[in-house]
Amino acid sequence: LAAGVLGHELHASGVRDATLVHFALSPDGLDETRLLESAYAPPGRYVGEMMRRLRAMVPAASGYLVANPYLKMTAWLVDALLQRGMAWSPDGPQSVVFVDGGQRPLAYLLTAGAVDDCPPVHLALLSCSDGRIDQRLLAASFGAAERMEVAVVAANMTVREQANDFWALSPALRRAAERATALLEAQPDAAARRRLVHDGERTAVIGYHAGDVLFACQALALEHTSFRSVAVLAMYSDIVAYLAPTLTCLPIQQPAPHRHGYLVADEIALLGDYVTELESGGAAPRLWHLFRPFRDYNRSRHHLREMLAFAFGGPGFVGRVPMSPRPLPRQGVSRGRVVVQFEGGWRLKEFPPERRGELLALLREAGYDPVILGAAEPLAPRVPAVPYTNLADFRALLDSAEALIGGDSFPAHFSQVIGVPTIQLFGSTRPGNSRGAESLRYRYLHHPLGCVPCGRPTVCQLDQGDSCHAQASAHEVLAALRALLPPVARAAAEEK
Amino acid sequence: MTRTLYCTTATARGLARALLLGQELRARHGDVDFRILVAEHPSVVQRLRRQLPQQTLVAPDEIGCPEWLHMAFCYDEWQLPAALQPAWLRALGRHGDVIYFDCDVAVHAPLDEIQAQLRDAAIVVAAHEGTATLARRWDRGPFNLGFLAIAGGDGPQKGLLDAFHAWMADPDPWYLHLSATFFAAEVAARCPKMAVLRPPRHGLAHWNAVDSGIRLDEHEQPHADAGPVLFSHYAGLLATDDGYRSRYPHDEAVPKPGSSFARLVQAYQERLGGMSPHPLAHQPYSFGAYVDGTPIAPAHRRAFLRLATANRRQIANPFAARGAIEQLCARSPEQIERMVRDQKLLIQSHLLGLPRSWFAIASTMTRLAAPQTHLRMFQLAHGVGNGWRRLRGLLSDGRR
């Protein structure tokens, strides 16, 4: 038996013939036991990843037991689970869910064959909070599954929920597990179920926003997963069509959450509603995977693209440079035109309002022709403003400009991806989570403060102000732009 | 002609034995290439080299064994030389045939016949034999790894040494005591051409000397019926006031005072005593303590060994990770179980004490409130207690 447990506290197992491997979530470096800390990955995804790694580390084992990462367990309980696992026979059920008296899943056990047949992302469908649901899912996926109760009675066997880095598990995850179970149970025979698990149609329900959709498209292009379609809000479907034309896009006719006062408390439940809407709209039955951050993504220093790639079933990588569309020769570029975009979802992420007028004035003074993407700037009424409507219009605007200055938001990410010279301005968010790859056409500006990322949307914790001190000054932005793109007057002189 | 290298492994404290072995080999074979792997920290080996410039001393980090530091933590002073043996032989095997002896071996005659056997066989081993109990025989395997002769080159012996080294570098902690058995199984599986030497001529030792019929000639050299004894082991023998005893509990026969083997042991001890002591002979084992000087408890070594390989690798230098390893031990299920047991005993003692004190309080109160009744109440309680005891006895009899 090979067993894996997620947690930072090592302990030596006292169970003979069982190899116990401790795994840990890692916010930066990765190795065989340090797993990528991905805000998008539910606990079940880590169950799958630990199963896969245990299979590679201990290939001779006949069974693989993984403790529920959602729970934090004592050494005693882990050993108790190992002892129960040792009583399991490879000739018995293909999978076992160990539960406590309250039917809370403590651990999952799969045979070597089941681990081989199962893509790691499939186990992301486990609810990790209800043993009965998980047993049904495993039975539907691999054949007979057993539920074994482990007595958790003594004080030293306490199990603390949500202790492993505060996963906030939505009840909608159980609904997603039940939906997948129903689909698997509806298959005519075991072979069809196995085919569905191994290579069936899976849809990544991304939903929103534009930046997440962009990174998801990149992540799916980097990993060879069984996801052949994505579900996003209809307003973002053009991003999928442009960046990942091979993927089928299922558009959802809903407004964007967290915009214009539309607040959402349970984002996973909202994704579940999207699935219901798509199914009632005639979408064929398939395995739906819900991807929204379960935790604060700022805890991890990994790029959001890599976090998503891990959640989609990849093993986890540090800082890969994604394939970008080759920059096309641009025609109709207006000399000196620079698109400037200030908005970014929440105030501390945006360029400070009091510096915007200064920046626009400096740009004009230096010979550039700024155009604002978004609302007009009251401090610079003469600068034209173009609202974002759709990707085609935005691309047309980008095609007419020589460069883009933008915040930690979709326009700057997209501009960098398609090779337009881009200056990206970071405030209260960590650049490492979303910045582009260093190149001659891209620079990001940020003052590294100890409080970044603060996770606060509107009020700075340093001075209770409404702007972030980590943002670059207007002069720094201009200097960076000059390095990237000489001003018109100088360029004309150089041409002469 | 193939070159033959002689080698051994010793800690600093066992270095005198290794030097004596070198002397004896040179006495039989002239100026042989004799190398000593010193199972100590490389800095200690560096100092020893300066003090013993005429000896070829090798440190654990020089034998192509990247796991040496972790092995030095996993194994104790007695186990480490044996654990490093396969990597050591593999490193020397690149230069020619290798004949390995434990440092507490005495060579009595030229070893030409072993060299001759290496021309045909990939490996020459010596059988244990003797009067050990079945369990002990099972543990220590059929061959005594205190002697090994390996043909040089890339024959099957290299695969054997690779496999044995992999076992020693990353052992299953629950089956560590079966290392020699594992080795024997691997030899049988991998080496079609092997030669087995048998005691008493080869590998005479206290466990096989009884009834072996050895006798000493006029030069005090041992002879068996089949010819002169080539080499003998003095491993695991501890001198006592009335002779010798084995270091291992339940071990087999020890040499009787006055027997030929006892005289051999005595002569060996005298020769060892005649060796000029080197300055580091009495210094503490360099892998016996953490970097802060705290001695490493056997439980710490066991706990570290019981970690999964991938988790062990995360602790780059266990000698500098005392806190982590102490926590590891404190978190071990055995430790927690012990703690729980102690707590249970404490609670039990409290529970057992409570009723008595309640009875005492009740008795005092009754005596004060109703002076004539307390004795009757006590008798009643006593009667109920006795009745309950009898009932329990009857119930347990019934179960039996």
Describe the structure.
The complex is a heterodimer of chains A (496) and B (400). Chain A is 32% helix and 18% strand. Chain A is of the alpha/beta class. In chain A, the strands form four sheets. A seven-stranded mixed sheet of chain A has the order 3-2-1-4-7-6-8, with helices on both faces. A six-stranded parallel sheet of chain A has the order 16-15-14-17-18-19, sandwiched between helices. In chain A, helix 4 (131-142) packs parallel to helix 5, helix 7 crosses helix 10 (304-311) and helix 11 packs across helix 14 (474-484). Chain A is elongated, with a radius of gyration of 25 Å. Chain A starts with a strand and ends with a helix. Chain B is an alpha/beta fold. In chain B, the strands form four sheets. Chain B has a seven-stranded mixed sheet with strand order 3-2-1-4-7-6-8, sandwiched between helices. A three-stranded mixed sheet of chain B has the order 5-13-9. A three-stranded antiparallel sheet of chain B has the order 10-11-12, covered by helices on one side. In chain B, helix 7 packs antiparallel against helix 8, helix 10 (298-305) packs across helix 12 (322-330) and helix 13 (333-369) runs antiparallel to helix 14 (374-399). Chain B is elongated, with a radius of gyration of 30 Å. In chain B, 36% of the residues are buried. The mean pLDDT of chain B is 84. Classes of the chains: A alpha/beta (496), B alpha/beta (400). At the A-B interface, strand 2 and helix 2 of A face helix 10, helix 11, helix 12 and helix 13 of B.
